[in-house]
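Bug: token stream looks shifted between consecutive jobs. Job 1:
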Amino acid sequence: MRVNTDGKMLTNDEREMVRDLILLPYIDTMVAKSLKEIERSGNVLSRSYIIAGRYIQKRIIQEVYHLRQELKRRNIKVIEDTQDDFITYNTIHFRGYQERFGMTRDVMRTEISLRLTRYTADLGDVLKEQMI
């Protein structure tokens, strides 16, 4: 297998898809942990929080499915590689090439926060539409 060293083989869109595919399981795990905490909390609004969390999880599942389909269509495969204290690495196999893709913990935290904010805003939009 040829190793890509010129960096021009994957498009920016494909890199974003790979990044999202890597991040979404982390987001799902965080939401699942939060849901468990909410279920045990006895909070008066726990049912509402659980519904919101499940909505976000459903969106995550849909996105992962669509990303996998699109990456498969483009002949791109992402394999978890190694993880150290600061960087998570994945190997990307694409169209006869391979490339190592790394993300620092700080970048991952920022991207996860942005994505959760977007999911929450989307849920707010859905609720607003239902109230009109």
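Job 2, same session, no restart:
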Amino acid sequence: MEGISGKVLTETLRDLERDGLVERHVYAEMPPRVEYELTALGRTLHAPLQALGTWAEQHIEEVLAAREAYDSRP
């Protein structure tokens, strides 16, 4: 993933695994391969995250205006 270090990505995936949101699958291949998939619990986040994304799309102009107003304060 662009914009995130390998260390941060690994830590985040481990935290998600610990929380029961993803499962890690290790394949005994050369080179080693690891895959992650959402668990049933992780899949329950789809609708709330989709709603958050929809909200963000609907309100992006207001958010950007608020940022601009904030940043222009003395």
